[in-house]
Amino acid sequence: MTWDSVSAWWWPYLFILLAGWLPTDIWRWVGVLIGGRVREDSEALIIVRAVATALVAGVIAQLILYPSGSLAESSVVLRVGAAAAGFAAYLCLGRRVIVGVLVAEVVLVSGLSLNF
Question: Which parts pass through the membrane (predicted)?
C-alpha cells in the first residue's frame, strides 16, 4: 500500500493516520499502561533511558555533522558552538532542557544572521 494507491481525496489523510500516527500511538499507550508499574530504578527503565538518550544524541550528531537544508549553509564551527553553548547553559542554569535549547537556538540564529 502506497501514497498513490487510492485516488480519493481522503486517502492522504487516512494514509497519514495509518502510517504515521497509529504505530507510534500504540507504543505511547503501552508506555502509559506499563509505566505506572515500573520502578524508577529498575533495569528495564535504565535500558530504555539509555537507548532514548543514544537516539537523541545520534540525531543531534547527524544534524551537526551532516546537516541538510538551511543548516547546511552554516559552518560546522557555528553548529558545534551552538550545541556547546546550549549544553553549557543547560548545565549552568538549573539543568532545564528548554534553557539549553533556547540558548543554542539563539546562538545559531545569531550566527546565521551574521553569516558566520
Answer: 12-34, 46-65, 71-90
Residue type, 67: P
Q: Using CA of residue 70, residue 72, residue 74, residue 78, what is the dihedral sign?
A: positive
Instruction: Output the pTM of the full model.
Output: 0.67
Burial class (CB in 10 A: 0-12, 13-18, 19+), 104: buried
> Shortest CA distance to 82 belongs to which of 59, 52, 50, 116?
116
Q: Domain limits of the chain?
A: 1-37, 42-113
Residue 72 is classified by DSSP as G
Residue 20, pLDDT score: 82
Please name the residue that has the C-alpha cell 553548529. Answer: 79
